[in-house]
Amino acid sequence: MSQTLDVIVVGVGGMGSAVTYQLAARGLRVLALEQHDLGHGFGSSHGLTRIIRLAYFEDPSYVPLLRRAFALWRELEKGLEEPLLHVTGGLDVGFAGSLVFEGSLRSCREHKLSHEVLDATALAARFPGWHPAPNAMAVYQPDAGFLTPERCIRAYVDRARSHGATIHIHEKVLGYTASNGRVRVRTDRAEYEAAQLVLTAGPWMADLAPSLQPLLAPERQVLGWFDIADHARFAPTAFPVFVLEAAEGTYYGFPEYGVPGFKIGRYHHRDERIHPDTMDRAVHAADEAVLRQAVARYFPDANGAMQSSAACIFTNTPDEHFIIDRAPDMPEVLLVSPCSGHGFKFCSVIGEICADLVQHGTTSHDIALFRLARFFRRVR
Hints:
With 380 residues, the protein is α+β, with helices and mostly antiparallel strands.
């Protein structure tokens, strides 16, 4: 490639598209490489809708990042014909002492987020699509909603190109070397050289970053859209996005939007470890049964036929927090966000973080939770 490059980005899904835009917008010369089509369905950045929420039960330290993420998504959607971010409110439902309920409540209190606590009776009365367990407790936070991931990626790609970024599709990275402040990347088409390399390859990260192989566990996930008896109860104006910790497992779901049906998934669907190139992408009766357990019990008005389905991938770390750090012994390479199934909402702010790290070597955002050192500290 004749042009001189500052940065090469590998993977143009949610994370990679945001990173590419942020780098290009700052005037850096960027090449982004994607082995599939843009917005493809083989990784972790598809599925029509993705939850975004402020009341973060996983850890309160995510909340400041989410506030910035909301602002950046709003900035991205300016001038578009349709919004990218749809606010529905959000419910974190569990029981007294459960991770989802208590963690969400902690985040709300620690960061002074507007919220309400609902018991099972109040939850069912306010949101008739719900038939919660008698001991259910919920945190309702009004600022939550969903993003439309394929459209988010397209918007970032368009903006990146408008700032001069070069984006190649159907080009697979075969390997790279780094030394003395330069990186050389070899693909199935050509070789390229740049000052830095950013890997945002989702479930393919273990293939591209040997240091991460012991830490990453790609996992098959399945989403289902179930036919609804009373559509009004599951409309975006009446049915908030949710996370539900229940006896059957921990589930997440959405109002009806874009395609017919109530969308639901289960965290760690059937605990299947996979490789993204060989994963079974068909959806089977056993997959439907995992989802229908929750639909039948807690959302009986949506317990119709499964109208459609999709398989996607979580790339799990041991503690299910992200990774944003330099590769060990290869400071020219930035490793970004094997995100354990809860990362898409953060793409906008992680794009900004990565551009900071590439340009300045540091960022004002608190990313201490995402450093690789946490996995290698010696037990004393």
